[in-house]
Amino acid sequence: MANNELEKALDILDSELKKQGLSRREALKVAGLGSAAFLMGSTEVEAATLNASDVKAKIVIVGGGLSGVATAARLTNSLSNPDITIIEPNPKSVSYQPGNTLIASGIYTKADIEFESKDFTPKGTKVIQDKVVEFDPENNIVVTSSGEKVSYDFLIIAAGLTLDFGRIKGLEAIGELTTLGDASSLLNTFKDSGVCSIYSVDGAVKTWEEMQKFIAKAKAGQKVKGVFTHPNTAIKCGGAPKKIMYLTNARLVEAGARDNAELTFYPNGGTMFGVPEYHDAIVKQFEARDMKWQYNHNLVAVDLENKIATFNHHWKEKGEWDKDLEEYAMINKNEDVNVEFDFLHITPPMKAPDEIGNSAVGSAKGFVPVNKETLQHVKYKNIFSIGDIAAVPMGKTGGSVRKQYKVLVDNLISTMEGKPLTSKYEGYTVCPLITDIGKVMLAEFDWSKKPTPSFPLDPIQERYIWWLLKVYALKPMTMYGMLSGRA
């Protein structure tokens, strides 16, 4: 199965490159990817042989998505006698979530990103198809929704985030969702209102339907408004709210209807991107495409019937002079702003599931508090966390997990062996920012908030080669590289 999927992706990659007069080897050389053995046809990214440790312990992983399964696979490769249990309710939890944006723009279908988790679960790993609802870290026990008590020596929390649509007035009926879970409440609430969200797989399918209606109106000569939001919480894949806006723009241009559509981005923050170089590049791209933006706007309500989005606009004003501090006091100001829309893409507020965020292993902010470098829990030394749910700055992308899971496994085994934790996650994050159909800006950065390009190319340039990487190569690299524990 893995080889067929990989060969198909590489055949498509070769076909697309041939149209440009390039071989795969030539293209990868241009892109600085000549040493990427995986893309040259190898089934492994890492050639290094892992030296298996003989240390023994019972390891439980809460969450069987990309982070959890990749970590289980790496542990299986790294331990001579692994005892690993994954607790996960969804049999399709390893589905390729970065593909949601491509589903929402008509490039992928839902079938392109859905996989059976059993096809990727490491041999010998026990799977409990249930949900953990209680944590007892003092006694090293978790409890599932069916009442089963599962003990552990070491615990890894990789459960992902909850989509908190119910926090938005008018969307209370949706409540809380997961990306891969039942989205019937979302679909039943949105109906044909022009409102959508790519953060649910079924929601991404709905987004493509709504986008086509939006484009049809513009093509028929109607003046239409598209609104795109970014909330006041941490989110998975911070670039996605902009990606769907770029792709809506591309589809409008393709249809010859762009002049009839106004597209506006409403982020809660005051920048386009946390890395200045990428922020500047995105602003220039927005200006070139006549896409508008309004900073410091957080979506707080939606009137589906009248198609009005309400934002809390917040800012600071200079107050009185403080003689002691020799500076002006800054006064927080805010107002609600109503915005009409024909098409509204919502990036919902996100948080850890309540059973985790509000438990002894959670934190006041809802995420699992870990040392950002070692990924070890700040209080319980036999607990680690990884991926979207871990309380680390940035790092909520699949590319981040690719770096994190190796660090976590190294440090977990060191802890098991009673050794110091020497492996460090340096904050590496990668976001293939789709800016057009056929163009991607590969944003790579770390704690320094400076571009950290892996390839000898200007990192702020939109490139076709990164589009090929995003659309054809990253999925098999993830599914058959990371999920084997070797990429």
TrEMBL record:
Q: Which Pfam families match?
A: Pyr_redox_2
GO BP annotations of the record are: sulfide oxidation, using sulfide:quinone oxidoreductase
Residues in FAD/NAD(P)-binding domain copies: 58-188
What molecular function does GO assign, one term? sulfide:quinone oxidoreductase activity
What domain of life is recorded for the organism? Bacteria
Q: What is this protein called?
A: Sulfide:quinone reductase
* Organism from which the protein derives: Malaciobacter mytili LMG 24559
Instruction: Tell me the organism's taxonomic lineage.
Output: Bacteria, Pseudomonadati, Campylobacterota, Epsilonproteobacteria, Campylobacterales
